[in-house]
Amino acid sequence: MEPPEPTQPANASNDSLISSPSADDESAESLAYQISLALILSLITLATTLSNAFVIATISQSKKLQTPANFLIASLAVTDLLVSILVMPICVLYTVIHTWTLGQIVCDIWLSSDITCCTASILHLCVIALDRYWAITDAVEYSKKRTPARAAGMVATAWVIAVSISLPPLFWRQVKAEELTSCSVNTDHIFYTIYSTFGAFYIPTLLLIVLYGRIYVEARKRILKQSPKKVGKRLTSAHLVTNSPGSVASTTSLQYGRHDTPSDTGSSTSDNQVKVTVSDALLEKKRISAARERKATKTLGIILGAYIVCWLPFFIYTLLVATCETCLNHDLFDFFTWLGYLNSLINPIIYTMSNEDFKKAFQKLVRFRCGRW
To answer: Is 276 helix (H, G, I), strand (E, B) or coil?
Structure first.
């Protein structure tokens, strides 16, 4: 008598039939996630490219904006533009598929471009802060030294430091015989990790905090100094600048609102009124200057805050992974990486939207382009 047929194969077949739709659903969900992720990251990359390109075009087209200070902002925009062109598009592909398919040479070029451009972008923020600090604390002397050549020297220094941080990994990068499936900086060299993170982020961040702190204190002093403290200051100023015989009558008229001044002092009264108007204009100019100082101080705070929020998680995690290999989470690392790249999109938005001259020049450029089309 033959033994009964085992029922396991049938069950296995049923299980496979049941699990097959589930596997298809997971595959479809994974594909939808990859497409959505690729679309979002591509939009961020495109927005970064366009925003920085518009900053460069705006400065190049407007002679009013072609100053040494704005030259530094244009250089920052060029650096962030390089990030969006050389680094971010390849990172979109690598982040979505999690497998490196472009070979060893492209990997080396991409990593070097990534470290160089991102470090140069961070150092540009230091250069801009340093320029702003000197302009506020030593306005008279620095105005003589604030030349395009000096700005170019500061930019060149930033790039030299950035290159010096990106080059070392190329010397110990070994070409593998098998196919390369991942592309990342080797964290086995702990001393390089410390050198690169401190040189590219921690030291520049400390410098930025010190500079922006000093700038804030100086700006607050100017605001308090420029704010009128007494209501009668305008009338006192008018009385002091008046030398005519009708000054007494004019001052009385101003203080008490009387208009029955003697007729023979009419011309003197008119002169006094003109001088009071000039005094009002000076006070209004001080108010505008104080408002600009407040806005500039607020802008600096936004710049520093955005920079720290974007880059601090990445550099903390980089140090953590160098000391704890099991702490590496690829998805978390990708998120922190793109959060850092996002700073290249935020920079042009902050610098241009906080400057009225930039806004006007940008609107003029857009109208000009639209008119040509």
So the answer is: helix
